[in-house]
Amino acid sequence: MSYHPEDLMLKSYVEGELDAVSALTIAVHIETCPECKRKVALFEQECGEALFSGSSEHVDHDEQVFDEIFDSIVCLEQNSEPFRMPRKPKQIEVNGKTFTLPVSLSSFVDHIGEWHSYGGKVFSAPVDIADNSRVNLMYIAEDVQIPQHTHKGLESTLVLHGSFSDENGHYQVGDFMIEDGSVKHSPTTSKGQDCLCLTVLTEPMLFTQGIARLFNRFGKGMYP
Known about the structure:
Layout (H helix, E strand, L loop, with lengths): L6 H8 L5 H12 L2 H18 L4 H19 L16 E4 L2 E4 L2 H4 L9 E3 L3 E5 L7 E7 L8 E3 L3 E12 L2 E4 L3 E4 L15 E7 L3 E3 L17
Antiparallel strand pairs: 1-2, 3-4, 4-5, 5-10, 6-11, 7-8, 7-9, 7-10
């Protein structure tokens, strides 16, 4: 794993300042990334220390608020519902294969739409969890090259299974990338290696080479 969210993004995740989709991609990434999980733990510790490092006047006020919250919790009626077991990862099927989703993403398995095939080599399924961006699961079969394209907005990619390469590097499970209009790339899988990714697009992508440019639809671009 070589590609990670920037520290500023991890800190914003801890402080609850990211939008829901960005927070989800970070949560999925840190499930498999010990390095970013450690950074998040440190940022959480810093936030905790900052919270309790105020003046004594603030401490007294905080203790009073805490006591009030505690009293209100104690007064709540007991919940008769059974204890909920920890969440378990869910599975999806595409192109005749079964993949296990990360736990953070498994919560949204019911929001995954139908798979659409592009030539039987690239498959895409929408994940209906955002209004201001397009979230997709994308499966690329082995030995496939997606036509070169760029992005009108931002594209976030998180590798869930397998690997792919482009003009800028090689990406494996857990790798997280954010790209903008300054990047032109042709994602490619090697022989014997397919790839499943979670992608987030804030704007359509624009093809930059060959006949695929017809998909740009007079400058509007297209989503997967």
